[in-house]
Each structure stands twice: as structure tokens, then as C-alpha cells.
Amino acid sequence: MNDTIAAISTTLGVGAISIIRVSGSNSIEIVNKIFKGKDLTKVDTHTIHYGYIVNKEEVIDEVLVSVMKAPKTFTMEDVVEVNCHGGIATTNKVLELILNQGARLATGGEFTKRAFLNGRIDLVEAESVMNLISSKSESNRKVAIQGISGYVSKIIRNLRQEILELLASIEVNIDYPEYEDAEVMTNNKIKPKISKIKLKLEKIMKESENRKILSNGIKTIIVGRPNVGKSSILNKLLDEERAIVTDVEGTTRDTVEGSITLNGVSLNIIDTAGIREAKDIVEKIGVEKSLSLIEEADLIILVLNNNEKLTTEDYKILESCKNKKTIVVINKNDLERKINLNEIKYKNIIYTNTIDLNGIETLKDKIMELFNLNQLEQKDYTCLNNIRQISLAKEAYSILGEVEKGIQEKVPIDMVEIDIKRVWEKLGEIIGETYTEELIDQLFSQFCLGK
Ligand code: GDP
């Protein structure tokens, strides 16, 4: 990481100004070699200088050069920014000269990666930089800037601190049971502390889920065996004949999509191919796609036929959706009830028939209820802002649940301690206290060049 990197930080095209950013221990020296004006190696930090970029005797452009010396810079390294005239030819030429003097072309996000690796920003802040750049709405911008300002990281850090203190008192108890000044940590004393941490985590997760729903909508999929009425339900929800409704099993082979708006939130619905033992290859692809869609969905509408007993495939579908937010729809409610309802262990069950729209409004109401769409509004912009962060928070939350269960069941304290430590680690992953090389490479490669 000791080499000096350079890249164009502005969009390459016709524009008033372009900025070429250089970072690393040789950055001042490198730019100084092609700069005609003050000797940049002798100027104060955080100053800006007027002059020319030259190639030997030839003047390439009239520029302003900012010199920022380590450590108070974005990357915590010496940084030089050349503000030249915009336009492809000039910008590329200036960059080329800088590279000729020994800088290396930066990879996507490498400046931000250095900022992270040098400890200037944490992972949430780094990801927020990316989110800010790609923000297209005012609310996304607000969330991103909260992240960059460190508010989100502070919440996570505080939670980790609380956990650390708890761990320390448990350790004292385990290692020095005779130490009288230490508070004796019993399961009963840990319990309220864990509940408090869980509640705080829950608050930020809820805010984050709301954010996700407000900006991305609810990813909904309709699953069920062929012919139970999935396409008909989708049609009724969409109020149009988008999916082809037919009697031949397996007609809806590929997915059909549509979207409706419920209380300002978009419900993006996908009707899947019937999940069943696939006989031909086209259908098999459709079935596999359905199963992977279940994993990614925010909501599953699982359709069953009121007029038939549950089949092996129905049981399989019921099983694959059991950990997801699911509404079980018993369709064809106009026909005789043959379905064995007592076998369905789901909380949210509603009855519909698509002939006279019976139950479709109930289905919409149920969705509104499940996602709190009547009260959904962004109150607080301090929230986790991507899937990586949210899923780590979810993991931490679920381990906290295990800790509570362990306490309830009077599991020995050193066992409980192991789980508490895992929560501390998971939260650490959110802000990048622990990370893998692959994660960092993958994450920063999504950044644009020059950032
Ligand atoms: P899919 O394969 O699950 O998408 O099912 P379809 O929506 O294509 O419906 C299969 C058949 O069931 C069609 O002939 C529909 O007209 C019929 N159907 C759908 N919903 C109902 C319903 O509520 N009651 C009755 N009686 N028939 C329905």
C-alpha cells in the first residue's frame, strides 16, 4: 500500500473542470515534476496553487493544484488534487503525465479503501460514501450522510462497548470468583442487560427495514402448485390480464411480474412457475428459480387449493417458506372445502376466490398489517443502509435471542458468554473491525474509479 495512486475523480466528459486525485508518499513530488508554479514540496499543507501542467517545455493546461499532507487527508496519506480544465483530452493527458512520473492507476474505490485500511473511516462510513454518490432521492441522501457522519457507527460502537463491559464482568466472575469487589454476575443480572442491548439493536433494525421498504418496495412472490390460482390472484391484485390464466398444469413456466402501490409503498410481485417435481427441463429451470426467489423475497404469498387435500408438493412448499414472512392463501374458496386446514402451521391464513374477488381486499389488508404500512414513515435517518449491514445485524439479533434462551434455561455462564462474544464479533463485522480480504476487495471494487 506504499505506492502512489492516481485517478480521475470527476466524470470524464465535456465539463468545466476535471479533478485528478493523487495519493501516496510520492504524490507531491510526482505532481511537482510536471507543475510550473510554486515548488509544491515547500508549500504548507492544505493550500491551493495556481500554475501550469507542463510536459517538458509544452504547456498542457492551466490548473489549480491542492496540496494536502498526511495525516489529515481523506486517505491519511499525502494527497494532491489537480483541478484542470474539463474535457477528455486534457484530463487524460494530465493523468498520463502523472502516471509517467511513477504513480499507478488506482483501482475502483482504492482511495476509499485506503481511507478504511488506514483507519480514517470504518466500513459503514465507507459504504455510505458509495451510497451518497449513487443517491437519487433526498431521503437516500439523508441516510447516506448520516452514515458518513458516523452516527450509525456510533450506535454500533456503543452497543459493542456495552457488550464488552458485560463480558468483562462475566470474565472477572469466572476467573476470580473470590474477588469481592466484583459484582457477582448471575444469569439474572445478565438478562436485563441483554434485553436492553436487544431492544436498541431492534430499533435500528426496524428503522433500516422501513428504509429498505420505502426505497425499494416489498419484494413479493406468489408460490404454489400449478393450477391453484396463482396467476388469477396476481391478475386480481394487478387488476389486469397480465398473467395468462389457463387450465393446463405448468403453463406459468417462467415468472410474471407486476407491481401495485399500497399506501405509497410499491409491492413488486412475481408469480412463479408452479413448484412441483419438474418433468421437463424448461419447467425444472422455472422451479429452481422459484426456490431461489423464496430466499430473496420480503413477502411470500403461498397459494393452496381449498378444493383439494394437501399434496406432497404442498407440504414441501410449506416447509420451504417456514422461515419467511408468509401469507397462506386458501384459494378457490367458492368450491367445497377438502383441504386439511389443521395441517397448516402458519399464523397468517386468508381465504380467497378469484371468481368474485372475495378475499382479495383481505389479502391487501393483511399485507398492510404485516408491514405496518399504515404507520410506515421514516422518522429517523440513522439506519443501516445495505443488505450486508442489515443481515449482520439480524444475525447478531438472533444470537441475542439464543443468549436469552440460554439464560432462561440456566445454561452455565461460560457457555452464555461464548454467545455474547459472538454478538460482539458480528457487530464488529458491520463496522469492519474484523473483515476478510475478499470482502474488502469485493466491496471496494463496486466503487467508481477515482473515489
Ligand atoms: P396457477 O397455475 O396457480 O397460476 O393457476 P391459474 O391462476 O392459472 O388458475 C388455474 C385454474 O383455476 C383456472 O382455470 C382458473 O380460472 C381457476 N381458478 C382460479 N382461481 C379460482 C377460484 O377462486 N375459484 C375457482 N373455482 N376457480 C379458480
Based on the model shown, name its key terms:
single chain; 451 residues; 6-stranded mixed sheet; 14 helices; binds guanosine-5'-diphosphate; 7-stranded mixed sheet
Itemize the secondary structure elements and their pairings:
Elements: E1 5-8, E2 17-23, H1 27-33, E3 35-36, E4 47-55, E5 58-68, E6 79-85, H2 88-100, E7 104-105, H3 110-117, H4 123-134, H5 138-148, H6 151-175, H7 187-216, E8 218-223, H8 230-238, E9 256-262, E10 265-271, H9 281-296, E11 299-305, H10 312-320, E12 326-331, E13 349-351, H11 360-370, H12 387-408, H13 413-431, H14 437-445
Parallel strand pairs: 1-7, 8-10, 8-11, 11-12, 12-13
Antiparallel strand pairs: 1-2, 2-6, 3-4, 4-5, 5-6, 9-10
Bound molecules: guanosine-5'-diphosphate.
Residues 224, 226-232, 245-247, 252, 274, 331-332, 334-335, 353-355 line the site of guanosine-5'-diphosphate.
Could you explain how this protein is built, in words?
- Helix content is 45%, strand content 17%.
- It is an alpha/beta fold and 451 residues long.
- The protein has a seven-stranded mixed β-sheet with strand order 3-4-5-6-2-1-7. A six-stranded mixed β-sheet has the order 9-10-8-11-12-13, sandwiched between helices.
- A hairpin with a 2-residue loop joins β4 and β5.
- The longest helix has 30 residues, at 187-216.
- It binds guanosine-5'-diphosphate.
- Guanosine-5'-diphosphate is lined by residues 224, 226-232, 245-247, 252, 274, 331-332, 334-335, 353-355.
- The site of guanosine-5'-diphosphate has 20 residues, from α8.
